[in-house]
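Customer ticket, subject: "Can you confirm the structure for Polyisoprenoid-binding protein YceI?"

Message body: Hello, I'm evaluating your service for our small team and ran a test protein. I'd like someone to confirm that this is what the system normally returns, since I don't have a reference to compare against.
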Amino acid sequence: MKKLLMNVFVVAVLTATTVACKNDKKTTTSDAQETAKPTVEAVAYKVSTDNSTLKWEGAKVIGGKHFGTVNLKEGVFSVKEGLIESGKVVIDMNSINATDVEGEEKEMLEGHLKGTNDKQKSDFFDVKDFPTATFEVTGHEKGKALKGNLTLKGITNNIEVPVKVSEENGMLTLVSEPFTIDRTDWKINFNSGSVFKDVAKDRVISDNFTLQFTVEAKK
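Agent reply: Thanks for trying us out. I re-ran your input and got the following:
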């Protein structure tokens, strides 16, 4: 039983962070910036949460990876001539879902990520104290990148995301390439080899994790 619990614990650790694939882009991270404001001419699009997805993938440094989804709670973007002038998306952290495991393993893994067990509360996302995360637009380089403030666990950093934006028949679609961020920039340090030097090599979790999103919004 002890061995089983340890295996489940290790699996739980794996999911929260990611080793980026070679084709993934490491996003530029910097201090929080002033959020963008829309012009009068901009058109507002409300995010369709049912038709939008946020995917994550995480892994240990040595072998093994896990992946899943997180739901969007709400959001809106303001657009003028194909350029996103402003916007905000709210992410429901209670919806963290591991899609590559089932049963007790899945339950343990998601519980660890959410921090629903008091002993593991601060290991990862601590959804009791931080039930949502946000992304607020600070700039948009048309055809290349969307810049915005990403807030996780009350910590805000600015990131640059490779994204394609299209408008058609009253629908706005944003599709990002897979991109990686460094979790320790948001003080998510559990079993980080760069933060803790005494973690056994087979327990070290990559500081990088991969995200990819598709967002649909309607006028």
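A couple of notes from the result: The helical segments are 2-15, 103-114. The mean pLDDT is 88. Feel free to reply with more questions.
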